[in-house]
Request: fold
Amino acid sequence: MADLTASRTKPVAAPSARKARRMTDLRRQPGFNAMAWGCIVFLYSPIVVLIVFSFNDNRSVVRWTEFSLRWYGEAFQNKGIRNATVISLQVASVATFFATIFATLAALATTRVRAYKGQTLAYAIINQPLMVPEIVTAVSTLALFTIIKKATGVNGIGYLMLAHTVFCIPFAYMPIRARLEDMDLTMEQAGADLYATPYQVFRRITLPLLMPGVFAGAMLAFVVSLDDIIISLLVAGPGETTLPIFILGQIRRGITPEINAVSTLLLGLSLFFVILLFWITRKRK
Amino acid sequence: MPAEAAAAKTRATDPSEPHMILVDHVTKSFGRGEQAVLALDDVSVTIRPNEFFTLLGPSGCGKTTLLRLIAGFELPTRGQILLDGQEIGHLPPYRRPVNTVFQNYALFPHMTVAENISFGLEMLGKPVKEIADTTARMLDLVRMEHLAGRHTAALSGGQQQRVALARALAPHPKVLLLDEPLSALDLKLRKAMQIELKRLQSETGITFVFVTHDQEEALTMSDRIAVMDTGHILQVGTPRDIYNHPARRFVADFIGDINIIDAELESVSGDRGRITFPGGGTATAQLQTASMRPGRVSLAIRPENVELTDPGDARATTQGEIENVVYFGVGSNVHVRLRDGSELIARSAEVKGQTGDRVGVILPDEHLQVIAD
Ligand SMILES: Nc1ncnc2c1ncn2[C@@H]1O[C@H](COP(=O)(O)OP(=O)(O)OP(=O)(O)O)[C@@H](O)[C@H]1O
Ligand SMILES: [Mg+2]
Reply:
């Protein structure tokens, strides 16, 4: 966002400056185009294959016969897929909601305060799920939850949601903090200057201006939660099968076009989020 | 200016004096230890009710810091700030009846022009009717009625400037602080806004504290000017005072064109001193600081006060030779090389001599100032 405005207000570079930039332009390096295309093909050909074969009227995922929506129909009919989708959406929604709130508070506490001792430590703690190998987090979370379950006798999907909330926080935190750091502090000072108390400044100025960052953080958290497998696999109790766990289970018995269809739908969902995000941040400007 | 008055300039402020803002021995330093920056060093100044007061000085001299201390965005390291008799130095910004026009305007991008202007009134908890009335009045005052519903991002620089002014004036603060509000505007718009600002100040009767590093802007707009350098206030006075009687070499240099001549102070009597020039000639000059001792001093005189005449003229203070004549439209600058080798500029509408001519230089006593470094 900052880049967009910057380039909009930047005066046109003088011819000599433009020439100098062109000389250091990476695109002028030999082999750049070949490399770029190589990367694109490498990244996207699996997805293309996935999408194409989700529309294949055939049980095979290697031999194309005819276009059909048959596997989408079957996927919708599949009770396992439907249940897993519902669980996934529930967990992702709850985790996103709380993770975004905590991330917003954390972002405020790391940018809108005087520098304090232990600030680096605070960063590290917030970002812990990004740095510790996920399998370690998963195993330790499982161990802790087992102890708690034993001690209290309380079971349920709440544990899974809690675990998701924790690892979603750093993903929600990053765009929110970036937005806060980009935000002109004088805006908030102007609010204080116009008699707004710190809480009013937050409600009327900081938060509205922060919203694009909050949306971005929430969407990132949602997608990350939806996609998680290791922690879910270990923490999820019986009847708490999320979509990725279900897909994993199915794939063990061989790839079916049904899974292709579900994966394509998931892809569509995340694409939708990306576009929505782009649209919101554009509009907010 | 008498010597006592000159001495009073360096004396501490007096709380019994009529004041709107009284900055009393304020020191502000940023950072600690090795990296500490002394932005303001024991600054005292009195700003009177209803005046257009300007802080003038080069970049980094502490103008913004002083303004931010008054607004409450910074707290003084030492000293106190009084507003209308009340100590405000440690109140948060939202408890001070002071509003700011920020250099980059800092308009709220998620609000319309009208919402920006009414924000302060709303925060003060004014009745809805009053908010609407005052906002309408402010829109009218800055001639922005037609854009009331517009979002601020879609405004031109001059329009944003006027919205920022209206927003800061709407709560009718006791003091309006303006930090280089015109520096982002082009020359023509800046001139128009200078007049507009003066009009707003006299119409509202609010005390304005205006920051600029443009001496011409300061001279045209201000009732009084404080000239600052490296965390100190060097001189406070009316534009006329500052221009005609600079107390310090820095002030003289900073404001307008001025000749600085090295000379010898022979004797002192009251606020006047007997001067001899190294290249010959004598004069009597005003002393700008009380504690002047005989010895080498700097003399200041404005180019327009230097008069050139025939070498034989009895009124001539000293002698020289025309080195160059530079025409600039309404007049010419005549560069004269004095006998001791120093250069002097005389400005007049009409020039009689030409390069190489010997001339007598008249330095009228009433325009000669002995200044401190
Ligand atoms: N927050 C800060 N931290 C550290 N140093 C600061 C801070 N604010 C100002 N300073 C320093 O204090 C001195 C005075 O700064 P100030 O912004 O008041 O200058 P100014 O007169 O407004 O200059 P300009 O005309 O460039 O705006 C400068 O040396 C500046 O580097
Ligand atoms: Mg400044």
